[in-house]
Amino acid sequence: MAVIGYARVSTRDQELEIQVEKLKEYGCERIFMEKKSGAKSDREELAKALDYLRDGDKLVVYKLDRLARSTFDLHKIAKDLQSRGISLVFIKEQIDFSTPAGKLMFTMLGAIAEFERDLIADRTAEGRERAKAQGKHMGRIGKPEKDIRKAMKLYTGRESNGLSVNDISKMTGVPRSTIYAKVKDLE
Fold first, then answer.
1. How far apart are CA 132 and CA 153, in angstroms?
2. CB pairs under 8 A, 24+ apart, for 78-85?
3. Strand-pair category, 3-9 with 95-96
């Protein structure tokens, strides 16, 4: 069983020393460190740490917010580790997901993450409805009708001019799907 540490700070000006010291005190054999925002999903050292861990190992992080920025991300990482038989410990918050109290905390975090996702979905739906009620256009703005007419003219004469639908799309900027939809309307 390996005890692996992960330390992260958001900016180059911040120091990793306190986290590293606490991780060493805990007994971490190896510590993965990086200076990168937690909002970024492409944290190389975290990916390396997660890849390094094996069944029975323990991932130790000094503070909860060093591992994830949202309960959704935290729950995702913790669930992945749990499914692989890897323990997760947060020193400062005194949370150990391998204990009964830690499992309870994990379940509560999962419920909070689900609640957070539901709130975001509700707010998004409300915003969409409000925008529609105000007459705002939803979705991608289509090409001007004159461009579509030009594309259709090229399409109908394509046997004589030798143009493919891809060629017509590139020339006019009208997406192929729009050209095909308009052809279908003509049939």
1. 34
2. 78/106, 78/109, 79/110, 80/50, 81/50, 81/53, 82/106, 84/53, 84/54, 84/55, 85/55, 85/56
3. unpaired
CATH number of 3-112: 3.40.50.1390
Residue 175 and residue 158: Cα distance in Å, rounded?
A: 16
Catalytic residue, chosen from 10, 70, 87, 169, is: 10
Contacts for 175 with CB less than 8 Å, ≥ 6 apart: 143, 169
CA distance 139 to 80: 35
pLDDT tens digit sequence for 36-52? 776 656 789 999 999 99
Q: Which helix (H) or strand (E) holds 46?
A: helix 44-52
Query: Residues 102-127: pLDDT tens digits?
Result: 888 777 876 776 788 788 889 999 99
- 177 as an active site residue: the answer is no
Q: Which of 119, 185, 113 is nearest to 152 (CA)?
A: 185
